[in-house]
Predict the 3D structure of the following.
Amino acid sequence: MLLLAGVLQVSAEGNTITNFAALRALTPAEAAKGIPVRIEGTLLQFQPRSKANFFMHDGTAGCAIHSIKGGISGKLVPSDRVLLEGFSESLGYYPTVKDGRVKFLTKGTLLPPIKPTAGQLFNPELDSEWVEVPAVVTGYKLADDVLTLSIEVFGLPFKAELPQTADAEKWADSLLQRPVRLRGVMATLFNSRRQMTGRYFHVASFNDIIPARLQTNDDTSPLLKVNQLLTGGFGPTEHVRVQGTITQQDPLGFYLRDDSGSTLVYATHALSYSPGMRVVVDGIGGMAPFCPILRAARVVKLEHVLPPEPVPFDFDKTNRLMMHDELVTMEADFLGLRTSVDENILQCRINQHVFEALLPGDASLPNLIVGDRLLLTGICELTTTHELKRPEWADGFRLHLAGVSGVKIIAHPPWWTPQRLLGLMLVGLILLAGVLSWTWQLRRQLARKTIQLAAEMQARRDAAIEFQATQRERSHLAANLHDTLLQTISGLHYQLEACEAESLPLTERKANHLETARRMVQRAQEDLRGTVWALRVLPLRERTFAEALRALATQLAEGREVAITIVGDDVLPPLSEFVAGNLLLVAQEAMHNALKHAQPSQVQIRVSAPPDGKHITLEVHDNGTGFDLGVSPRENSGHFGLAGMRERVERLGGKLHLESKPGQGTLVRAEVSLCSFDQNFTVL
């Protein structure tokens, strides 16, 4: 009827809108045309710092005006009668007024507020209406010069916005967790399609928030047990007192235990509630799933006792309802971890029940391994998957841990988990298949190698037989040479020396020929001895070069008053028979010359090789008479072996170096490169 009256009034006065019901009746397209508006009504609120800062009601409907052109003449207060002139616009949940001009008319009185029921809180017609609702203040926040209260109206959460004043925070703190009667303008939250997304309240001042019962410091409220909250006679507006011990602090307040049970106390005062503190809570009961909560208007500290012991918890055996909001302890298996800024969620399992244990986001987590056995201590919160949260339908739970102290590792998981055993079995099967395949391949290779080795062994046996035959032939040849040709030459040498000793008249020419023949026989005798020794020593397949060198030195020193020592590197590079045999002959020749011509008392043989194994050095040093290298040796000087030694060293690709001075002994040095020639030669 109001809407119809408004439309008729528009028609009667031309195109001017004279009431808010008519303004609301416009479509967004019509309101956007800027139709003139002239409406007389009562000022509900004027908040310059709010986006919707001017609220009026003319008896047909309320309206929020966002734009006042030219300001407001005079100082206005709620209940004043004013005249609003301007133009319609579509901005708003309903059409509103732009470029508004406000004129004070007279003092007036506010209309009685509408008292909506719970089912009417979201009726669209209540937008911008002056209402009064029962509420409980649960929190507040200061921001942008506005104080925003968190309230519950008929158990539903809402926000109420007030202008910030110097004492706003003090007033808000005094109203926390208290039932009040709140008067204000109901506003609508909406999106760009003008769809309602929520409701909130504009409140002019704390004078419009009237406590249902003034806060007192006496003890007139009835003293109840936890299990008596919200029972008959003690509804959600009845102030009561509960005495108990704090079990754990919570961001919303703390958990309280007495001998009848436990509950969550909403206490947003800036106080520290530590476990073990005995307190008296003055407040009202609040409805919550499974068990009521307690909204604290006042908390009185009595004394501090020992922190309460947690109750052992077994979801399948204990009374579940008694465990809600109770401090409990249990053993569980750790399954995993999810982290966020606000909290860390430990996923755990006890028996067949999987649950979550919640830690504050700033808590330092222990080093957990999946499968760890944990001892958890915290507040139990029952949960259900049913829409209706009946206590008997509680089919799950979660734990609220106070901090890292609520998590203790009892034991790490055994290594032999079913998953690992299965993995090991798979790995074992793969390895077994690999071993079988490798064995089959190995047997094939072994068969081929066996055939090859048999052939090689036969070749080695044939070579060994041939080598032994060659050795016997060489030894036999050396024995024959020693017993026949060498003995004959030795006899010839003795005969020539005897002829030379006889005092027979000889011409000088005959004497020279005789001396030459004697020296030639002597040289042949020495060469033949070296050949015989070489036949007996070589090849060097059964001894090392050092062993052969010691044997040679021992043989040459036998029967002489001379000390022959061998020094050098402990480890020499491997030498072929060609190199070893020729070096042995060089050493033999050098020692033979020293023993025969220099009359030394000591002969030192040194063999050395650098780490790279690219060459070897042989030195033979005696302390005998020595000789002058600058004087060409005469034929009787006995140094016919120098040319032979030099030839052997050059055959090895090396150089022979000779040092000697009269009375200072002689040094023979042979330096041989092991990389500059082919070693596959015979020595002879």
The radius of gyration is 60 Å.
